[in-house]
Design goal:
With about 70 residues, this protein is an alpha+beta fold. The protein has one domain. It is built from 3 helices and 2 strands, in the order ββααα. Strands 1-2 form a two-stranded antiparallel sheet.
């Protein structure tokens, strides 16, 4: 089951639906960076290029969980 979170990105309200396991990893990344959930989503949005936001979130979570090295 997906869990939705809402955020304003570039002045537009949007929501992201991810599995709770991905949110748990993203919450850890946000805490490590001293960011709010919204702050992390804004950062992901700014660095994702043309990739869909949900995909960029999942890939960041996988990268962080798998190797611990985030190259962005």
């Amino acid at each position: 089951m997906l869990k939705k979170r809402s955020v304003t990105l570039a002045g537009h309200a949007t929501s992201v639906a991810l599995e709770p396991e991905f949110w748990a990893v993203l919450d850890g990344i946000a805490a490590e960076r001293n960011l709010s959930h919204a702050g992390l989503l804004v950062w992901i949005d700014q660095t994702r290029g043309r990739r869909p936001l949900a995909s960029a979130c999942r890939l960041l979570a996988l990268e962080h969980a798998g190797s611990g090295s985030i190259t962005r």
